[in-house]
Task: structure prediction
Amino acid sequence: MYIGRVVGNVVATIKHPAYVGYKLLTVARENLDAGLDSKYDIALDTVQAGVGDRVLVLDEGNGARQVLEMEPWGPVRAIVVGIVDAVEITHG
Result:
């Protein structure tokens, strides 16, 4: 699981049935200093996030499929499960 920033949308006119009803978002991982990493995921949106939103991403396939209640499995590895309002990091 990680905190990231939605940097774009993915549009697919033909897609796997497991994706129907969900937006596909491009999410860049965020560093501890709130900078963006070069790593990203294409994630299914379950919380109506949009470009620019800071989000919580579940990037473990089995957990993502459990949240979506896919049985026995679906081609999903990452999902957006929350919109983050604030992050507080304490050192020490």
